[in-house]
Amino acid sequence: QSALTQPASVSGSPGQSIAISCTGTSSDVGGYNYVSWYQLHPGKAPKLIIFDVNNRPSGVSNRFSGSKSGNTASLTISGLQAEDEADYYCTSYTSIITLVFGTGTKVTVL
Amino acid sequence: QVQLVESGGGVVQPGGSLRLSCAASGFTFSNYGLHWVRQAPGKGLEWVAVIYSDGGKKYYVDSVKGRFTVSRDASKNMMYLQMNGLRAEDTAVYYCARDCGPTNYQLDYWGQGTLVIVSS
User: Fold this and answer.
1) pLDDT tens sequence across A36-79
2) Cα–Cα dist B10/B44, whole Å
3) Distance between CA atoms of B115 and B53, rounded to whole angstroms?
4) Rounded Cα distance, B68 and A47, in Å
């Protein structure tokens, strides 16, 4: 099972919006709505920020939103803030009953 | 509140064994699937294994099949990862994580991780 493809890095200025793509296949992203996104700050446990493609857990800022089209999912961060600087990973359930992570994206706030 | 605490990491020689533990609290243990996820130094996150809420089904990433075994003990609210035949490429921080439900492969709570180093 190959990792889902994400851009290595994305950057933006405070207040801007950025989008992170997550490309898989019809056997994972394209085939199921069990797509989620995680935020990782150094030294801290990963945090779920989007589940079921476009749902936010309680307490997660509404500046984070998710979507999916075909085999590609996307995470959009609106109104970028300094605290959003972190690594972001997508995941998807797969047809072979496993979970696959994306390659990870480092978000830099300029 | 939901808490997951991993333990059991350490330094082990190639070919050796280690058992990781994950202590769960703050939720009804038998209602949720549990996962192991790892992150090698400087690398991305990699899913390792899942055990369903009733312990009846277990699935693994190909690279650990036949070497790692996941289990859970509902009487102790514990999950385990028995790792045999360890290789240098198994060096990583290992996280346990709770599924959002019995199993939908989305992870809503994570532990802080335990470091496994495989080295001679």
Assistant:
1) 999 999 989 999 999 999 999 999 999 999 999 999 999 999 99
2) 20
3) 25
4) 26
CA distances from A49 to A60, A96, B28, B117 (A): 6, 25, 22, 30
Copy the structure tokens of residue A98: 């496993």
- ∠ CA B70-B72-B75, nearest 5°, is 165
Question: What pLDDT was estimated at residue A35?
Answer: 96
Q: Render chain B in DSSP notation, one character per residue.
A: --EEEEE--EEE-TT--EEEEEEEESS-GGGS-EEEEEE-TTS-EEEEEEE-TTS--EEE-GGGTTTEEEEEETTTTEEEEEE-S--GGG-EEEEEEEESSSS-S-EEEE---EEEEE--
Kindly state the tokens that stand for A41. 């700050």
Taken in order A65, A70, A71, A72, the sign of the CA dihedral is: negative
For B47, the closest of A44, A52, A100 (CB atoms) is A100
- With tokens 């599924």, the residue in question is B99
- Kindly report the nearest CA distance between residue A55 and chain B, in angstroms: 12
The candidate with the shortest Cα–Cα distance to A61, out of A78, A73, A86, A44, is A78
B47: which chain A residues are within 8 Å (Cβ-Cβ)? 91, 98-101
Q: Which residues of A touch B92 (CB under 8 A)?
A: none
- The set of residues, in sequence order, having a beta carbon less than 8 Å from that of B22 and lying 6+ positions away, is B4, B5, B6, B7, B34, B36, B78, B79, B80, B81, B96, B111
Task: Using CB atoms within 10 Å of the CB of residue B115, give its burial: 0 to 12 exposed, 13 to 18 middle, 19+ buried.
Answer: middle
